Amino acid sequence: MTPTNHLIRYTRVRNRFATWILVLCTVGLGTTDALAQDAQASGTQSDDVWAGVEEMVVSGSTAGGILADVARSNSVTAFSADDLEAIGAADISDIASFTPNLEIVVAGSTSPTFFIRGIGLNDFNANAAGAVAVYTDDVPLNSPALQLGSLYDIEAANVLRGPQGTGPFRNASAGAIKVYSKKPTGDFGATFIAELGNYDGRDFQGSLQFPITKETVWARFSFRSTEREGTFKNRCTGAPAVKDREVQQPGIGAPDVGYCGEDVTPGFTSQVLPNQDKWLNSRNNWSARGVFLFQPDLRGDVDTDWLLAVRGSRRDEPSFVGQSIGTNGQNREVDPNTGLDVRPPINGILGGRDNGGFTDPDVVQAIVNTNNRLQENCFPCTSSERTAALTEARRMVRFDLGRDLDSDPYLGSISHAGGTTNDTLGTSLKGTIEIGDLMELTSVSGFDMWDRRVDIDLDFSPNPLFQIDTKDNGRQFFQELRLNGQAFDGLDEVFGGPLDWEVGTFVLHEELNTHVTLFFGPGTGLTGAPDSRDYTQTLISLAGYAHLSWDFWDAFTIDGGVRFNYEKRQIDYQLGVTLGPDILTNDKLVGQEPTGTVRLTYRPTEETSIYAKFTHGWKSGTFNATGSVQLGVTDAKPEEIDAFEIGLRGSYLDNRLNLNLSLFHYTYANYQLFTSLTGFQQPPQFIILNASDVELYGAEVEATILPWEGGLLDIKFAWLEGEFLDFVQTQLRQRTVAPNLAVTIPFETDNSGNRLLNAPQYSVTLSAQQAFPIGRFGALVARWDGTWKDTTYFDASEGNGLPNSEGDKILPKSTIGQDAYWIHNLRLSWITPSENIDISAWVRNVEDKSYKAFGADLTEFQFTTLFFVGDPRTYGVTTSIRF
Fold this sequence. Notes:
Blueprint lengths: L4 H38 L10 H4 L8 H8 L3 E5 H6 L15 E5 L5 E5 L2 E2 L11 E5 L2 E2 L3 H4 L6 E8 L13 E7 L7 E9 L3 E11 L5 E12 L3 E3 L44 E2 L2 E12 L7 E16 L5 E4 L3 E2 L14 E2 L13 H15 L7 H22 L6 E2 L6 E17 L3 E19 L9 E21 L4 H4 L3 E21 L10 E24 L2 E22 L5 E23 L2 E12 L2 E2 L11 E2 L2 E14 L4 E13 L2 E8 L2 E9 L3 E12 L5 E14 L3 E11 L2 E10 L11 E12 L5 E11 L2 E2 L23 E2 L2 E11 L5 E8 L7 E6 L1 H4 L1 E6 L4 E9 L1
Parallel strand pairs: 5-8, 12-19
Antiparallel strand pairs: 1-7, 2-3, 3-4, 5-6, 7-8, 9-10, 9-46, 10-11, 11-14, 12-13, 14-15, 15-20, 16-45, 17-18, 20-21, 21-22, 22-23, 23-24, 24-25, 25-26, 26-27, 27-30, 28-29, 30-31, 31-34, 32-33, 34-35, 35-38, 36-37, 38-39, 39-42, 40-41, 42-43, 43-46, 44-45
Helix pairs in contact: 6-7
């Protein structure tokens, strides 16, 4: 009997996990035996295996911070306030380079997307519904407009890897990121941090805390203000006012009226925006927060505390831009002896013109230099040799462009810099009431609102090929109630230990209003294309959950929980169409699913725990906000995940070695993928579709070593294998079937077996720090951080982009991706003996490595490819004062 694919996969998973469990138990028990022998030799072995366990594993969630997050999700990377300052984290996207298997793509200052262990959603729309839940002070931030706020005066930022099947989590099929604000301590105190750097960087943050009343009400106020000049130079500056421009005349010999290489349509004036800034990708934002802690003294056996936070922020800066490289032209290989093509030409070549006839001057110069170098081998060259040299130069340059972009990726020609503004205001209230000795009630309430505009020239060229102006505003309300406690306390001999329990419920309500204006340039011929999108969306998410934890045997704990998830989306959509009737849609999307987790934990010593768990996760379906004329508004089905994970957490050698190890295997059904759906001469519809089944597995290792006095070595390693098991993508293409006759046909691309996007196979982060005491002058602290990431793909084609209408691949390998690269940071600090003053000099991206942060293939729409580029080298000085 031939085994089915399901049976083969099950057998493969079973064998893989059996091997992993054997290795993990060998490592854990071997470490335990070594520690036991050391303890016996020193006479310090404890007879009580449970000694100190209560402080190591927290069953409930009310402790907050790292202990509660570890209790819920063993695979946690935690950042303290000192860690965030050392790596120069301005927002949570900056922690991605220091977290195993975390990728945060920022295609704009208010449009983040998150991936954990290869799972996420690259949706940049206002109604995006990612697979990573983001929280501030236990309140979920659902809208992308809220998720990339400044990090300042933070107690901790924790990354929880893996699906969260129970507890107060929503749409966390990949994991969660939780940020905690610093709380008032009841004492007087103040901090001030000033950072000055290149690109005229100015970053100021501070805090002030004090008691309002001596023992009951305390307050803490904090702020951060960041300004930096742009890192991207724009050639299209100095254009005059529109009224002073000349109209482009028709004809081959007509004078060009462009200002920075644009191809102006006859009968129109140049579309380059006047009075543009010379430097783009600047920063200009501020944030402020007030936190109040209220601890009333109540009568009876009742203790309570309430934490109120009020926060606001403002962002006002040019929209984030990048580099575009055209693809219009022919990839030819010519015989230098005959001048004839060696093989049929391929339609499309990286480094060609875009749909506006523009080629970046750096690309043109690269082709000229390569052509001149090739012609040196045949000088004086025949006509055939010159043709062969030019075609070969173009072929050679395209590989360089696919790998490294052009010679200066921070220089471009942008016709419309636009701007991004985002105003946010929010408040949260968290209260806990202890009822006797065995029960606690927790309430978390939150209200947030935003008003955002993103006006961006998304073609990154001097021609108006693809400009989007998005205005959205909305508000969300969140309420959670949970009750936790213990049962069977005092009956340890019968039950083995107390039963910790938790029950809770939450509701999230969001209202979103969005208006999008699309502009593809004058005279483009896109009749019937959409020119605007207006929609409102209402979201209601409800859940109820329960969790139990039982110490059923010496050193063994079993715990698990379930959560019932319900979500409803209602959308009212109007698609404005050029020279055609508007398309109206009113639709509702309802989803519900039970999820859950079961986990077994073994603690052979006070310092070591070994766990194995299974989680069933779920993420709701969603609407595609970029409705097209052909398809209207579509939706994606909910995705489901079954996740197995085993791991070890331990502290050894008198806390000189802290080790976290995890191995995992995921299977996904109806995996949600954000991708482009193109039709010939039609704007792409970026949609979420279900890519059928996905499988991934991998491992993570985190080790912190304190080898000697003042020394620290931190090692983080991640390995990830993930692929699409069955994913065939259909595009609409135009094919010529007879002279003067072309038809639009569906074209299939099989991505089955390809690696997942934003899922590098390997990644490594290394941090080394050493303190050097200098007596009464304090200490010097030197730190190096290095991050290496393996090849990363930004689409489902493994970076190759979509083939042309003849089925030929036109882009070099990894063009829509980034090859492996290193980033190095250095920091040298002087700290006073009292540790209240810290002056640091730092360099980030020491080698000035340029790397692609995101890429997209828009060949079938405007004959171009788009790339966002990471920050160049920055350096400066930071002064911190605390008292």
